[in-house]
Specification:
Blueprint (H helix, E strand, L loop, with lengths): L3 E5 L4 H16 L3 E6 L4 H6 L3 E4 L27 H16 L4 E5 H4 L5 H6 L4 E5 L17 E3 L17 E3 L18 E6 L10 H14 L5 E4 L1 H5 L12 E4 L4 H4 L3 E6 L3 H9 L4 E3 L4 H13 L2 E3 L7 H12 L4 H17 L1 H11 L1
Parallel strand pairs: 1-2, 1-4, 2-3, 4-5, 5-6, 6-7, 8-9, 8-11, 9-10, 11-12, 12-13
C-alpha cells in the first residue's frame, strides 16, 4: 500500500496554490493526496488528481466520508473558537477514517491554540508550510517544533534578515498551473493593475484606487489591463470602464496577463510578486497591509521595482515610478531574480523533502 499525505491549507488561494504542483507530482509517484479545506477549491484540487474532504462534516457520517457544505468565508484564517473547533473535530475524524502518513499544514494553523492540530495527528507526522516570507517582527518564528517549508527562495529575503532558523527550509515557489478554463490573453499591455481579491476591505485602499484611476485617465498613451474586481467594488472607478486605453481581465488570469505586461502595479501580495518575478516584469508596489509593506521593502532594496507607501502615494509618485519601470530601470535585477526563481522550480526541493519524509 502506498503512502498518504493530507494537506491542510488556510481556505484562501494564496495558501492552496503552492501545494497543487506538489500534490500532482507526488500523486504521480503513487502517493494518495487528500485535502482538508473549503469545497470552493475542489475544481483545482481534482485537476491535480487529489481528493477533497470538506472542513464541515455531514450530520450522518456513516461508514464513508461525505462532503458537506463548509462555513465558506466565515472560516477565513480559522479564528480561535467554534470555527477552529469544527476544523479540529474534522481532522480528528479523518485521522481515524483514512490513513495519514504525513500532514502538510499551513503555518498559520499550526500556530493556533498551542498547535492543537499537530497533537491530533502527531508531531512526528506533521510538516508546516508557509506561502510567504516571515515578517521581520514575527517573534514566533522558532515556535514550531516541526519542519517548516517556505514556498519562496531565500534569496528574496534581504541579506540582513537571512539568519538561520531551526527547522525552516526555503524551497521553490511551486507555481500552480494557469486556470485551464480561462482563455489566454493575446494583447500586450503597458501596465497590469491588480490589488488583490478584496482591496476595498483595507482602510486606505480608496485613496490608492482613486490615484490609479487618475493615472489611467492622464496617461492615454499607455494601455492598461485592470483586474475586473476593482471597478466592481468601488464606484469611484466606474469611469475607467469607458476609458479607451483600459481593458478588464479576470482576477484569476493575472499570471497569464503578466506574460504580456511591461509593468505590474500590485499591492505586494506574495503570490502576485512571485508571478511577476517569474515573468521578469518590474513592479510598482502600493502596499495596503503589514505583510505587503515588508514585501514592498524587499522589492525596493532588491531593485525589482518601486515601493510607494500610503503616506507617499500621489499621482506624481506613481506616474514617475511607472515611467522608470517602462524605461528599463529595473530590468537587469528582475531578470537576475527570475533566473534564480526558475532554477528553484526546476530543482523542485519541496517534492524531494516531502518524499523523503514519507519514506523515512
Amino acid at each position: 500500500m502506498g503512502h498518504s499525505l493530507l494537506i491542510v491549507p488556510i481556505p484562501e488561494w494564496s495558501s492552496v496554490a503552492p501545494t497543487l504542483r506538489l500534490a500532482k507530482t507526488l500523486g504521480h509517484r503513487g502517493i494518495q493526496i487528500s485535502y482538508l479545506t473549503a469545497p470552493k477549491f475542489e475544481p483545482d484540487i481534482c485537476k491535480v488528481g487529489a481528493r477533497l474532504f470538506s472542513v464541515q462534516q455531514s450530520h450522518q457520517e456513516g461508514d464513508s466520508i461525505r462532503r458537506f457544505r463548509s462555513l465558506g468565508e466565515s472560516f477565513k484564517y480559522y479564528p480561535n473558537g467554534s470555527q477552529f473547533d469544527i476544523l479540529a473535530s474534522r481532522l480528528a475524524f479523518l485521522r481515524e477514517a483514512i490513513p495519514i502518513d504525513l500532514m502538510l499544514l499551513d503555518r498559520g494553523l499550526a500556530s493556533i491554540q498551542n498547535s492543537r492540530l499537530l497533537r491530533i495527528v502527531g508531531l512526528e507526522k506533521s510538516v508546516a508550510f508557509s506561502s510567504s516570507m516571515f515578517n521581520w517582527d514575527d517573534m514566533n518564528r522558532e515556535a514550531l517544533p516541526i519542519p517548516t517549508l517556505v514556498f519562496c527562495p531565500e534569496v528574496f529575503e534581504l541579506p540582513a534578515f537571512r539568519f538561520p532558523v531551526s527547522n525552516v527550509y526555503h524551497v521553490e515557489c511551486s507555481f500552480p498551473p494557469i486556470h485551464a478554463d480561462i482563455g489566454p490573453t493575446k494583447t500586450t499591455v503597458d501596465v497590469l493593475v491588480s490589488l488583490g481579491p478584496s482591496p476595498v476591505h483595507y482602510p486606505k485602499s480608496k485613496r490608492t484606487l482613486e490615484i490609479i484611476s487618475n493615472v489611467v485617465a492622464r496617461n492615454s498613451n499607455l494601455h492598461f489591463a485592470v483586474a475586473d474586481n476593482l471597478h466592481k467594488q468601488l464606484s469611484a472607478l466606474q469611469d475607467m470602464v469607458m476609458a479607451p486605453n483600459v481593458r478588464f481581465c479576470n482576477q484569476l488570469q493575472i499570471a497569464d496577463e503578466l506574460k504580456h505586461a511591461k509593468v505590474f502595479v500590485t499591492n505586494g501580495g506574495i503570490g502576485d510578486i512571485k508571478e511577476s518575478i517569474a515573468s521578469a516584469v518590474p513592479m510598482i508596489v502600493l502596499p495596503l497591509i503589514s505583510e505587503q509593506a515588508f514585501n514592498a521593502m524587499r522589492i525596493r532594496l532588491h531593485g525589482l521595482g518601486a515601493a510607494i507607501y500610503p503616506e507617499c502615494q500621489s499621482l506624481r509618485s506613481v506616474e514617475d515610478s511607472l515611467q522608470s519601470a517602462i524605461n528599463g530601470e529595473f530590468s537587469h535585477n528582475i531578470q537576475s531574480m527570475q533566473d534564480i526563481f526558475l532554477n528553484f522550480e526546476t530543482a523542485f526541493p519541496s517534492s524531494k523533502m516531502i518524499h523523503a519524509l514519507l519514506e523515512r
